Structure formats: C-alpha cells, structure tokens
C-alpha cells in the first residue's frame, strides 16, 4: 500500500476539514483508494508551524478550538509560520494550499505554489488566486518538474466542474459557460428574499464557513470574476485576466428588491459567464440577473451552485452541487489527491476496483 505525506499550508476551515476526513475515515479511504494519507507538516498564520515526518497526531489539534490553536509548545512546533522553509524542505509528497484567496496578485498563495512545484512536490489547492493569476505558468512549472498542479476546488468547491469538462466532454466543442458560482452570494440572495438585511445575511454565511476572509469579494462579485477567468481559460482555452471580466456585485439589491422580484416570478442571481464570440475571442462578465422561474439556474438555492456548459453536440449540460462549505471543499482536495495518484500511478493495480477489473474473467 502506497502513502502520500501531506504538508497543509493554512489551517482554517478547509484544511481542518481535510484533516478531519483523514483522521476520521483514513482507514476506509485507504481500503477504497489503495493509498494512505499522512500529514507531516502544518503551517498557519495564527498557530505557527508544526513538523513531524513520522506523521502528526491530528486528534488533539482537531479537538482544540480553531482560534486557540498554537503549535509553539509542541515538539516540532514553532510560533513562526516558516512557509518557505516548510514547503521547500520538509519531505512531503503533496503540498495542500488553503490560505486566503487574494483576488489581486494571488499572493502569498502564488509563492507557496511556486515554491512547492520548484521543489518537485505535487500541489493541490482550493485557492482561486494563483490559478486565476498564473494558472498557465504554474501548470508549465509543474510539467517541467514532473509533478501535478490540481485545483478542482477553485470552482464550485467539491462539485466536479473542471474535471467534468476536461474528461467528459472530449470530441465536442464548448461554446460558452454560464453559472451561479458563489455560495455566499447565492445564500445571501435567498436570505434577502426572506426579508433578512444584507449585513445579517453575510454574517450568517461567514458563520457557516461559506464566505471569503473578506466577504466583499463574495458580495461585489470579485470571487466570481476569478472563477469566470479560471473557467474561460481552462474550458474555453482563453487567456483572460481578472481585469478582462466586467463585474457587478449584489450589494445594491435590497430585501424589498428580492421580494418584489419573487412576487413577479423572478429570482435575483449573481451570474458569471464566459462566451466564445464569432471571431474566436472569449468574453466574460459577472452581473446580477433576475431570472425567470423556468431558467435552469433559478432553482439553485442556499450555498448551491451550478454551471451550464453550452456545447455544439449536446446543447446545454448543467452540473449543480455545493459551491461552498468546509467539508465540501475539503472533498475537492481529496479528489485532487486521487487525480494525482491516478496520473502518477495509473499502472499500479492497487485499488480494489483496478484489481477487480484485472481479475475479472474476459470473454
Ligand atoms: N470555504 C469555502 O467554502 C471555500 C473556500 N475556498 C478557498 O479555500 C481557501 C481556504 O478557505 P477557508 O479554509 O474557508 O479559509 P479560512 O479563512 O478559514 O482559512 C484560511 C487559513 O489560512 C491561514 N493563513 C492566511 N495566510 C496564511 C499564510 N501566509 N500562511 C499560512 N497560513 C495562512 C489563515 O490564518 P488566519 O485566520 O490567522 O488569517 C486561516 O487559518 C481560500 O482560498 C478560499 O477562497 C474555495 C472554495 C470554497
Ligand atoms: N466564498 C466562496 C467559497 C468558494 O469559493 C463562495 O461563497 O462561493
């Protein structure tokens, strides 16, 4: 049985949820997937850094209140974050980047990803900043070093949109994508429809773990701008930057507006889209739209998200599921680790499914 040693960069909602998954169902996952997972390093702005190359005991860390965690007094611990040292020097197979998304220059996460790839380590991340700012460069860097750069959770958290588009739509042309791509704003719009004021609705989304460290990014559409860039570049082969995406958020929508719309059979939604134009260029935008009830995106509620792919052979295909949430997003990281395993050990007959396929009688 193989094993992957992980370095977790950032120990907030998402990476804690990944640690919980590993801690609570590690054995089951190992049986199912054919490899084990072990955490050998954690860094966090507030808690500091912790390294144990024999495997960190996660239980006491997960038992502590997030705000009270401090690594300074633990063996292998330090009050300093020491990101560069940990990422470059600690013997980890996969660096899991889940610090805050910086919609501007993608830092410091962009540097974290670069350091890891340069050190020959696989990276998986839910952080939209590095992918939107420098996705192409980072994929090339990963290729040069013979490792993987995976970022499924950067769009629609655990709902597999990027991998679905890459793996399932071979042989057809995708002409555009349109979707609800932010859980917080969709949750907030739903609360406005119930008469809740914007600040209270945002506070609830923060409490539930949907919102960005600075929820302005969710409400003003900057988070969807990044996701539209990622989808345009990954799915439509564009080379867009955030500044190319026209953006308007939902901060001007009041509970009265949302309720009036509902009375007319309409629902306000924050819609992101990217479209291939007749001249081959790709344009993208983010804007609130009052959708009629029969629209495929109108029924998406709470932190749910959906992306519709417009294709030449299938018409419109819509993928919907959770767009935010700690555990849902941690699952995206697990799916990235599985993708890394499949890419680099596809020849191994280690998983039960592969063994069963190999041993099944033919004819
Ligand atoms: N939550 C969700 O539903 C989703 C989140 N994402 C993305 O995943 C990432 C993580 O999200 P989430 O866990 O919810 O966010 P949190 O804010 O809960 O966690 C981020 C953690 O990273 C720490 N951190 C910040 N800067 C650094 C640094 N330089 N070095 C080490 N640690 C650092 C923060 O410390 P401190 O608190 O002290 O600042 C915090 O503990 C974000 O980029 C987010 O955009 C993507 C999809 C969905
Ligand atoms: N804050 C984001 C988290 C996922 O990207 C959202 O609400 O969708």
UniProtKB/TrEMBL annotation:
The keyword Oxidoreductase applies. Pfam families: Homoserine_dh, NAD_binding_3. InterPro entries: Asp/hSer_DH_NAD-bd, HDH_cat, HDH_CS, HDH_short, NAD(P)-bd_dom_sf. PANTHER family: HOMOSERINE DEHYDROGENASE. It comes from Streptomyces sparsogenes DSM 40356. It catalyses: L-homoserine + NAD(+) = L-aspartate 4-semialdehyde + NADH + H(+); L-homoserine + NADP(+) = L-aspartate 4-semialdehyde + NADPH + H(+). One of its GO terms (biological process) is methionine biosynthetic process. The keyword Oxidoreductase applies. Gene3D superfamilies: Dihydrodipicolinate Reductase, domain 2 (3.30.360.10), NAD(P)-binding Rossmann-like Domain (3.40.50.720). Keywords: Amino-acid biosynthesis, Methionine biosynthesis, NADP, Oxidoreductase, Sodium, Threonine biosynthesis. Residues 10-152 form the Aspartate/homoserine dehydrogenase NAD-binding domain. Coiled coil: none annotated. L-homoserine binds at residue 212. This is Homoserine dehydrogenase. The active site is at residue 227. NADPH binds at residue 128. Its EC number is 1.1.1.3. Belongs to the homoserine dehydrogenase family. Residues 160-338 form the Homoserine dehydrogenase catalytic domain. GO terms for molecular function: homoserine dehydrogenase activity; NADP binding.
